[in-house]
Design goal:
By secondary structure, chain A is mostly helical. Chain A folds into 3 domains: about 5-205, no CATH class; about 205-285 and about 455-523, no CATH class; about 290-420, no CATH class. Chain A has helices at about 5-20, 25-45, 45-70, 75-125, 145-160, 170-175, 190-200, 205-240, 245-275, 295-300, 305-320, 320-335, 335-360, 360-390, 400-415, 420, 425-440, 445-450, 455-475, 480-485, 490-505. In chain A, helix 1 runs antiparallel to helix 2 and helix 9 (about 245-275) crosses helix 15. The radius of gyration of chain A is 25 Å and the shape is globular. Chain B has one domain (about 1-75): Non-ribosomal Peptide Synthetase Peptidyl Carrier Protein, Chain A (Orthogonal Bundle). Helices cover about 55% and strands about 0% of the residues of chain B. Chain B has helices at about 1-10, 30-45, 55-60, 60-75. Chain B starts with a helix and ends with a helix. Chain C has a single domain (about 35-155, about 180-345), classed as SGNH hydrolase (Rossmann fold), CATH 3.40.50. In chain C, helix 12 links the parallel strand 4 (about 235-240) and strand 5 (about 265-270). The longest helix of chain C is centred in the first third of the chain and has 29 residues, at about 1-30. Classes of the chains: A mainly alpha, B mainly alpha, C alpha/beta. The interface of A and B includes residues 321, 375 and 379 of A.
């Protein structure tokens, strides 16, 4: 069931009606029932995987609670210190078991093909084997990367004792399966989402208005911009061998726009849908293309994934005692390297993992590593940039300086996305880069049209992108919704009518348009 | 406290640490800065900062960082 | 508390109403108008404008709307009839259109062309579906018809709100789309469409495999539904095959149809292919489209013969002395004749 479809609209409307009709204390059950139903409609019998993950998570959390209770009953001061150590050790064992089980499922379903392909390549290459190792084709359940990460964040937080475990298994299952965010995130934190998710929320017109506003905005982004561009991008990537570097550049920049419109539009729909029930879902995008550096970009794009990797992988590695003391040893040889050992090791590990998260292929790993490397390099280059700025006479933080930094970041991030488009692998990415650098040439509108973007469609897409940019500029100060609420009711009704009409007319949907699934759905 | 502000100034000299209370929320300190800071705090005060302490509410202002350091020194 | 609930409900209702209005109005503007070309797209809708009680309605595919002229039938025999056939109209579409027809204007006789008995569940043509179904007024029959006809990529909602289908016409809208959004001029002749061309070579039509001489399951299923329906409604049903020269009709088909018709009282089958010479149809003069359809000359010859057949057999009344009929129908016949002359002159 696509987010932008009549069946999904019917599904959400029935869920909302039922939610507000049942007594407040049972409302979370409505959400749970609809979430499970949604998952069943999407995946059928593979719903078993998400239920297993929920069960493992719940049982582990309860085991942790019991261990905590036992150590809390010790009052003796001497024993208490010992008990604390014992407790930490026990919690760690439980956490590790839980992580192994849940990540194990993810690893087998998503990554075993990749692993076996690589093993087979070595076996064939070096040992001359002729048989191939591997499983039968495995089905990847919807949203497995998202819900696995979300539940593991919960377990790790329990290990850090950031909050108490949820004792109601149904509520915990709802946390894992909540339907608006199952398809493409965000990866919510238990502490952020649980209050509004579990306590039945009273009906509030503002929630409905705000939710609908977000949904409409998301649908507009997706239908008017993203889906309109997707055919052209797919075709251009498929025929890259026959096209010059200028087409590649157009493809790269349009892909940035498409990906943003598609993914952030989808997230708007997610947050808007959750809001209809009064549930707060964390924002996943904050105008990423206004970032002045790659690291800032990653704190504004797919935010919940970035913070997950930061909190649960980057920090633990970079401030681990072992790495820090290893760094000190290196300092004996070189102070420069020693100071950076733990930081840069953690960065590269995290980014290789982020790459793999996006897909079980080497091109994604390389893409991730390049992101990490660029961040490290730019950290080293800051003094140099400052000097260059002073030479150019640009004030640090002044308009020119900021504009330059924003454009530079946008270009770098767009160019890195070539790996995303290179479905044949790293070699294809290199070939595209080569074309961009060496084979610039003339471009014709007819050719672009034959690749799936007619001139009329291009005009609509560009106007759409222009509007999106204008909205982003406006939202720096105040959200569009808040600005609308300052106007008269009549203005709001007219505004919504106009936007809906635009979506109906200029959206790329129905026959004659290839409906592109949300790009992030496969992850 | 003064010593702490000295360390912080070493990372971001342009900030007024007396008044600023959104070091994390306003994205002034990114993750690299946090790790650098943790490394220096560990060394200066001989404390152990674990991943569980790396929460926004412990690092949003100089005061909060100071409180964290004091708490960890007691342990 | 109660006030806020009432307010919310009012607002929601207003929003739903507004949304529906936008959807419907946009659908009107963006739907193809079929005025200057593809006029057959108006056949289904124009029927609702028919206000004289009808004696006969003819169902079938495009061969029917090119072959039977209700205006000629009026002039010759004085009964009121209508052609409710569409391009590639399948058996299931005929079934639902029949139910729709009987609800609005119950005829004394229904005839059904059986050319499309050859096509089953694997036959679907989106453009033809739209032409046939979009003109239907909203009803359970319309939905049933759409459901039975849709192919994989189509959605039922786009038959309720055509804007979902036709919004992609935004870059080809013309003034006509606004002018004729809510009111279209009459472009067919009581469901009849004029063809002025003359054919060249006979053509093979359809994906018929040699040796494959059974009707597909879905076609038979709906033929049975049609026969059941007419029996239950007590309306005589004539299964007929319009004459064509194309060579894809097998004797086995005739046999099967005769066999099926036998089981129903008031149901008969006749194949006019065999009567082509008797009717006076000329291979070189009277056909278009590779002998698959009749042109206006062929249509006149066939209508005269077909009209006599059904008038005698079903004892259809003559309304030519009745003012309620003659005023309207004489004008229609005049218009028909004038347009044929115009069309022929334009051809020269």
């Amino acid at each position: 069931m696509s987010f932008v479809s009549v069946p999904f609209a019917v599904f959400v409307i029935s869920a909302v009606l039922l939610y507000y009709l049942v007594p407040v204390r049972y409302r979370y059950l409505v959400l749970l029932a609809f979430s499970l139903f949604f998952y069943y409609l999407a995946c059928g019998k593979y719903i078993i995987y998400i239920i297993i993950t929920s069960a493992i998570t719940y049982l582990s959390s309860m085991a942790m609670e019991r261990v905590k209770d036992r150590s809390a009953r010790i009052f003796d001061r001497e024993k208490k210190k010992e008990a604390k150590k014992w407790l930490k050790k026990r919690l760690k064992v439980i956490m590790v078991i839980c992580l192994c089980l849940n990540f194990g499922i993810l690893a087998i379903l998503k990554y075993s093909d990749f692993l076996f392909a690589n093993i087979n390549r070595i076996r064939v290459g070096y040992f001359g084997s002729t048989d191939m190792w591997g499983f039968e084709k495995l089905v990847l359940p919807l949203g497995i990367s998202f819900y696995t990460f979300q539940s593991m964040g919960y377990i790790i937080d329990l290990f850090y004792r950031r909050y108490d475990a949820e004792k109601n298994p149904l509520k915990l299952t709802l946390f894992v399966t909540f339907f608006p965010q199952i398809v493409q995130g965000p990866i919510s934190r238990f502490r952020d989402i649980s209050p509004t998710l579990f306590n039945g929320n009273r009906f509030d017109e503002d929630n409905i208005r705000r939710g609908l506003c977000l949904i409409i905005f998301g649908v507009a982004k997706k239908l008017i911009i993203a889906d309109r561009l997707s055919v052209f991008i797919t075709n251009t990537a498929a025929f890259y061998k026959d096209l010059n570097g200028t087409y590649m550049l157009i493809m790269v920049f349009l892909y940035s726009m498409q990906l943003y419109a598609d993914f952030s539009g989808g997230i708007n729909i997610t947050i808007g849908t959750a809001r209809l029930f009064g549930v707060d879902v964390t924002e996943n995008f904050v105008r990423p293309f206004f970032s002045k550096s790659v690291s800032e970009y990653w704190s504004r794009w797919h935010i919940t994934l970035g913070t997950w990797f930061r909190d649960y992988i980057f920090y633990p590695i970079s401030i681990s005692k072992k790495l820090m003391s290893f760094g000190k040893k290196i300092s004996g040889i070189s102070d420069f390297l020693g100071k950076r050992t733990s930081l840069y090791t953690a960065t590269l590990v995290v980014w290789a993992a982020t790459g793999l998260w996006h897909g079980p292929e080497w091109r994604y790993v390389l893409w991730g590593l390049l992101n990490g490397i660029i961040m490290c390099v730019s950290a080293e280059m800051t003094p140099l940039y400052d000097r260059l700025n002073r030479m150019a006479g640009w004030k640090k933080g002044g308009f020119l300086h900021r504009a330059f930094a924003v454009i530079r970041t946008f270009v770098i991030m767009s160019l890195l996305r070539v790996f995303d488009l290179s479905f044949e692998g790293i070699r294809m990415a290199l070939s595209i880069y080569k074309r961009i650098l060496l084979k610039q040439g003339p471009v014709s509108l007819e050719r672009i049209s034959s690749l799936g973007l007619s001139t009329q469609d291009m005009v609509v897409a560009l106007i759409g992108i222009g509007l999106l940019f204008a909205v982003s500029l406006l939202e720096r100060k105040k959200s569009i919704y808040d600005r609308l609420m300052e106007r008269t009711a009549a203005f709001r009704w007219v505004f919504c009518t106009v936007v809906l009409t635009m979506i109906l007319i200029f959206g790329s949907y129905g026959i004659g348009y290839d409906s592109a699934d949300f790009i992030y759905m496969q992850f | 406290m003064e010593e702490l502000v000295g360390i912080l100034k070493g990372i971001h000299p342009e900030i007024d640490y007396e008044t600023e209370n959104g070091l994390i929320d306003k994205r002034i300190f990114d993750s690299f800065d946090i790790v650098t800071l943790v490394g220096q705090l560990t060394e200066e005060y001989d404390i152990e900062i674990g991943p569980e302490d790396l929460l926004p509410e412990n690092f949003n202002s100089a005061k909060q960082i100071y409180e964290l350091v004091e708490r960890l020194m007691e342990e | 508390m109660k006030d806020t609930i009432i307010k919310t409900i009012t607002k929601s209702a207003a929003a739903v109403l507004l949304g529906m209005t936008i959807l419907l109005v946009l659908g009107r503007i963006f739907s193809p108008k079929y005025i200057n070309e593809n006029r057959d797209g108006n056949i289904t809708a124009e029927f609702y404008g028919e206000d004289t009680p009808l004696d006969a309605v003819f169902f079938g595919s495009s061969t029917v709307y090119n072959a039977i002229s209700p205006d000629v039938l009026w002039d010759r025999y004085g009964f009121a009839s209508y052609t409710r056939a569409n391009a590639s109209q399948t058996l299931w579409q005929s079934y639902y259109l029949m139910r729709d027809t009987v609800r609005y204007n119950r005829p004394k006789l229904i005839t059904l062309d059986v050319s499309f008995m050859k096509y089953g569940a694997d036959f679907a043509e989106e453009a033809a579906n739209r032409k046939t179904i979009d003109g239907m007024r909203f009803s359970a029959d319309k939905l049933g018809c759409a459901k039975a006809s849709m192919w994989e990529d189509e959605s039922l909602s786009s038959y309720i709100f055509p804007i979902f289908r036709f919004h992609s016409r935004w870059d080809e809208l013309t003034e006509d789309d606004l002018r004729f959004a809510f009111r279209r001029p009459k472009v067919t002749y009581e469901g009849f469409i004029m063809e002025f061309g003359r054919t060249d070579e006979p053509e093979e039509f359809g994906k018929l495999k040699p040796g494959d001489r059974l009707f597909p399951e879905k076609a038979e299923e709906y033929l049975v539904k049609i026969m059941d329906y007419c029996r239950d409604e007590d309306i005589p049903l004539l299964l007929m095959k319009t004459p064509t020269y194309i060579n894809t009709w097998f004797p086995e088909y005739d046999k099967r149809l005769e066999e099926m018709a036998k089981g129903y009282e008031g149901c008969d089958y006749i194949n006019f292919d065999r009567a082509a010479e008797e009717i006076g149809l000329d291979r070189r003069e009277d056909y278009v489209d590779g002998h698959s359809h009749l042109n206006v000359d062929g249509a006149r010859k066939f209508s005269v013969c077909f009209g006599r057949y059904i008038k005698d057999r079903y004892d259809l009344p003559d309304h030519r002395g009745d003012d309620r009929y003659s005023g309207v129908w004489n004008d229609r016949y005049t218009r028909y004749c004038m347009d044929i002359e115009k069309g022929k002159a334009a051809l020269k």
